[in-house]
Amino acid sequence: TKVKISGGGRCNVTHAEFNPSDLSKNYPRGEKELLGPFHTYASGDTVGFFEERGVALKIEEDGRLF
Hints:
globular; two-stranded antiparallel ribbon; mainly alpha; 2 strands; about 70 residues
């Protein structure tokens, strides 16, 4: 199943940055607010969620995970 609402036909699921502090810096308008949630549910958790379900993810050169 494809996500039907996305920017350009693809929707990245997370970013290949596994340190919550560094990950939150990718969101300048919400860096402080996202730091807590990223500590609770980080990129590695997202990757694990998909891998447990047999969904292979691809890392783009800029770090986006599809």
